[in-house]
Design goal:
FAD/NAD(P)-binding domain; 8-stranded mixed beta sheet; binds flavin-adenine dinucleotide
Length: 349
């Protein structure tokens, strides 16, 4: 049985990016993905900050469908509006995932699609990875298997219990091209959203801990007068995970809840962490140090230095937004609008 340097579970954007950065340094990387097609099924709105272009090189222009500078936060008919001088992009998420996949593949990463990770056990050389298509051996196992991570579960790394179900559909109509609508009262514990792809097409969705379908139907009725079945569905998990490493093992991306707790966005934090994870794996392979302590020092400590406070701030904002009505926000925020716009950073939401 060949011994890989790194096996990554999950060929989503975070798994593929981590693979690309490790394989470029000459190490043997295998990605194991349960789905047969990259980027499918869709489970994302594809709204990201300007930072995405710093985090992934050479993203083809056709990935970016729309550029937005305004976020409007609604409660009923009343709203507050924040205009930023930095853009947010609406992406074709499938094309984005395909781009990162292609980069990993062209640089030499091996893929096994349609193969489900089941379990692992420690062996002398590192880890034996059990899948539906046989066993594979590796020095390091990386879990990039999303919000319901089997790798985290099998390794005893507890994911936080804050779990939302997200539903979304793409609707034709007339929309303001430059405005993202955040409908704070559309969900009891999150929000609804309208993200325009163009003046005549928008992604309308909702996330909620309970009764997501009920809230989704009500939102569509309110916003476009008619129900459309969801074309995107997925789970958003948020919170600060205590432990993201074990001997020979780490988790990255949604699997490590590197997700913005207010907005549920995970691409920017996940891609930032993919870079840190790749550096830690390369170092571990060079020094042949695969113990939990080494991975904690070189991965967990480093990503938490960058993201622990943004995640904690996001958790506070999430709690506040569930408690404070928008009319109260108006009183507090309106006099500060200019200051907020100048200092607005969507990656803290
Ligand atoms: C409704 C919704 C809207 C969202 N909107 C946004 C947004 O606008 N902006 C943003 O930044 N983020 C958004 N997100 C979050 C974003 O989609 C995730 O943060 C991002 O996809 C994380 O990437 P990942 O690679 O960590 O995980 P994923 O993209 O979930 O990839 C994990 C991969 O692992 C595979 N896998 C899982 N289990 C196994 C197994 N046992 N064996 C083999 N393979 C396995 C899966 O098939 C999948 O391909 C949204 C999420 C939802 C649900």
């Amino acid at each position: 049985m060949p011994l890989y340097d790194v096996i990554i579970i999950g060929a989503g954007p975070i798994g593929c990016r981590t693979a690309e950065l490790i394989v470029k340094k000459g190490f043997k990387v295998l990605l194991i993905e349960e789905d047969k097609k990259i980027g499918r099924p869709l489970k994302c709105t594809g709204l990201v900050s300007w930072r995405i272009k710093d985090l992934v090189e050479d993203v083809p222009p056709e990935v970016f469908l729309n550029t937005i500078f305004t976020a409007r936060f609604y409660s009923g008919e009343s709203y507050i509006e924040i205009k930023s001088d930095k853009p947010m992009y609406v992406m074709d998420r499938q094309k984005f995932d395909e781009h990162i996949f292609k980069r990993a593949k062209e640089n030499g990463a091996k893929f096994k699609l349609g193969t489900k990770f089941l379990d692992f056990k420690r062996i002398e050389e590192g880890v034996l990875v059990k899948t539906t298509k046989g066993n594979f051996a590796t020095k390091i196992l990386v879990g990039c298997d999303g919000a319901i991570s089997t790798v985290a579960k099998r390794a005893g790394l507890k994911q936080p219990g804050n779990v939302l179900v997200g539903l979304q559909t793409t609707v034709k109509g007339l929309f303001e091209r430059d405005v993202v609508e955040v409908l704070l009262d559309a969900s009891p514990d999150f929000f609804g959203w309208v993200v325009p792809e163009s003046i005549e097409k928008a992604r309308i969705g909702i996330a909620s801990k309970k009764n997501a379908f009920k809230h989704f139907k009500a939102l569509l009725k309110r916003r476009v007068g008619k129900y459309y079945p969801p074309d995107v569905r997925g789970v958003i998990r948020y919170g600060l995970m205590k432990k993201t490493v074990a001997d020979n093992l780490l988790v990255v991306g949604d699997a490590a809840t590197q997700v913005k707790p207010f907005s549920g966005g995970g691409l920017v934090y996940g891609l930032m962490s993919a870079k840190i994870a790749s550096i830690a794996c390369i170092k571990a392979l060079k020094f042949e140090r695969f113990d939990e302590g080494f991975l904690k020092e070189n991965y967990e400590k480093v990503w938490k230095e960058k993201l622990k406070w943004p995640i904690i701030k996001g958790m506070i904002l999430r709690k506040l937004s569930e408690k404070i009505p928008t009319w109260m926000c108006r009183i507090v925020f309106n006099p500060l609008t200019k200051f907020i716009a100048e200092n607005f950073d969507v990656d803290l939401l």
